[in-house]
Amino acid sequence: MKIDKQDFRRLNNYLWEIPTSFHPDMNVPVWIFADEELLEDALGDLSIVQAVNVACLPGLVGHVAVMPDVHQGYGMPIGGVMASRLPDGVISPGAVGYDINCGVRVLASQIEYRSAIPYLSDLASTLYRNCPSGVGRGGSIPLSAEEFERVCRQGARWSLERGYATEEDLARTEEFGCLEGADLTKVSQRAKQRAKDQLGTLGAGNHFLEVDVVEEVVDPEVAAVMGIQEGCLVVQIHCGSRGFGHQICTDYVQDFQWAVINYGIKLPDRELVCAPLNSPEGEAYLAAMKAAANYAFANRQALAYHARQSFKEVFGSQVEEPLRQVYDIAHNMGKIETHRIEGEEVPVCVHRKGATRAFGPGSEGLPPDYRPLGQPVLVPGSMGTESWILLGTEANEELSFGSSCHGAGRVMSRRQAKRTIKGDRLRTELEKEGISVRAGSMPGLAEEAPQAYKDVSRVVETVSKAGIASKVARLRPVAVIKG
Amino acid sequence: MQSLKLSEAHKFEEIEHTADWSYRVWGENLTELFLQAAAGLYRLAGILLTCEPRITRDIELKAIDSESLLIAWLNELLYLHESERLGFDQLEILHLDETTLHARVTGAPTQEWLKDIKAVTYHNLTIRETQSGLEVTLVLDV
Questions:
Q1: How confident is the model at residue B16 (pLDDT cuts 50, 70, 90)?
Q2: B-chain residues near A94 (CB < 8 A)
Q3: Residue of A92, A197, A202, A414 for testing the chain B interface, max B β-carbons within 10 Å
Q4: What residues have CB less than 8 Å from A256, skipping those under 6 apart?
Q5: Chain B residues with beta carbon closer than 8 angstroms to that of A415
Q6: Does residue B50 sit at the A interface (CB-CB below 8 Å)?
Q7: Looking at residue A64, what is its pLDDT?
Q8: Alpha-carbon distance A395 to A63, whole Å?
Q9: Does A283 touch chain B (CB under 8 A)?
Q10: pLDDT means per 10 residues in chain A (483 residues)?
Q11: What's domain A5-411+453-482's superfamily in CATH?
């Protein structure tokens, strides 16, 4: 399949459509949020072909939404959102992704960057020591079988009981840190085995923990509610459900190869295997996915706990207020939500892969302080550049099923990044710019170099012009911890 | 029966992919394709084994077709690393047909495993016939 710019219908300056007439198998159109340059970037790899493939799945409603940070993935593009109708629309493990409930958490401090400069190197080392990262590093919180089960059922609620979380942390977490209905009997022994010693670990790849300074506040009123102050330090944590989620997805993608035959589902790509939501297979996956999602909430909560301990170790009594949670959102998840589609409230299963929930003001599911404003949307950029905190809008409900972008989006392959960028040289350059870097693997660092990513400011500009989310604050990294 | 030492494997190459990893594998027949795909996976992961103890495992798998079996085989090797930190440098396939695989693999605990691979995916997966045998392109989620 070949897609050119001529195949798009321009709906406005930041929204392009591929109508269903483009391909006979498409059930819904594809909407791409992009300016012209980002659209051309997206046409540079298989992103849009993958989005068209997704639009061919049965039982979808509305359209497939594609975010401006889109890049090629496997099956569904990274930066894709689809919604399938209940009860007989499909759920697809591959369209959620292997790292179930991979997501981002932001914690804000009142510590001024200027006064913290002499401590940043020590802070980076302390965070690196306290927050295990890299391939195969064991977890910081060993779990008995019984406790593991509770983590999977209760997510961050378990963390609260164990003293790793505050009430406010839970209030400021998507789904309040727990998806109801997780069922460990739907999870393989192998997945449980992989989960056993990984709670409280960052992992490797693009996962990171970062300390940033709030460089610019665009919306002071909203920032004040979030606890974000210009010139102060914040922490970003990016990780997911680790081997537990990977194994659950692997198991179900394998099982669903049978399911598609049983249910007579025709697919353009086998990675998109799916089953009706109300089938035994679909229900089993959803219950297993929820277990991994809850594990991921508890995992980010454990890392937040370690980050707070690390700040205490370094800043001691100077820390009057602990790192206060701004929000925690998932960007690989399947969720049962109600959305307004063609004027009607419809219950759907929204798949967001490399896209986040971004509910607007008045939405249920937001804590009282955020309900009048909307949901914080956390958009990490690449290391060395900037990150953004945005706010979900009312308009995105009909544009993107209440969703927004999740990051910068890659433009350069990992192979090319490794070939053209040397990890140790990159580290020196970042350190020169005042960014302390602690990384387990230099080739791994090179793969995640800023040059490998799109310009996040352009992505954020598009999202805000398209009306999906509005700008609140811009962050600049000062310490990066990677596996 | 067909076997392969990791150090002798060379029928694969990494190819460009924006976000994840992708590699192409080829072989004269299905068995060789499976062996080279496993070797390619280990090479991309950047494994280094300890000298001792040597460990042998039997792997028996069933799947819906040969593509599905290939994914199950590679994900099994990832699982053995994740769960027991094992890597294998001698791979032997005792039986392979379209839907069943019996392999015997020998190796040791890994000393190094540089690259975290979340899973081997089914993305656009097709084992194709070529003039010299078979080939397949695999996409890894990293």
A1: confident
A2: 121-122
A3: A414
A4: A92, A93, A273, A274, A275, A281, A285
A5: 14-17, 21
A6: no
A7: 98
A8: 15
A9: no
A10: 93 97 97 95 93 97 96 94 96 96 97 95 95 78 92 98 97 98 97 90 89 98 98 97 96 96 95 97 98 98 96 83 92 96 93 98 96 98 90 96 92 83 89 90 86 90 97 97 87
A11: tRNA-splicing ligase RtcB (3.90.1860.10)
Rounded Cα distance between B31 and A149, Å, is 41
**Residue from A241, A246, A447 whose CB has the most chain B CBs within 10 Å, to mutate:** A246
| Domain membership of residue B47 as a residue range | 2-11+21-141
Residue type, A351: H
- Predicted local distance difference test score (pLDDT) of residue A278: 96
Indicate if ipTM > 0.90.
yes
Say if B77 is an interface residue toward chain A (CB within 8 Å): no
Q: For residue B116, what are its two tokens?
A: 């975290």
Instruction: Tell me which DSSP letter residue A453 carries.
Output: B
**Domain residue spans in chain A?**
5-411+453-482
**Among chain B residues, CA nearest to A69:** B19
Return the amino acid letter for A281: E
Count of the separate structural domains present in chain B: 1
| A136 in contact with B, Cβ within 8 Å | yes
Residues A208 and B75: their CA atoms lie apart, in Å, by 25
Q: Which residues of B touch A441 (CB under 8 A)?
A: 114
Any domain includes B16: no
Find out whether A389 and A370 touch, Cβ atoms under 8 Å: no
DSSP three-state, residue A197 = coil
Q: Could you tell me which residue, A295 or B115, shows the higher pLDDT?
A: A295
- The residues of A carrying an active-site annotation are 406
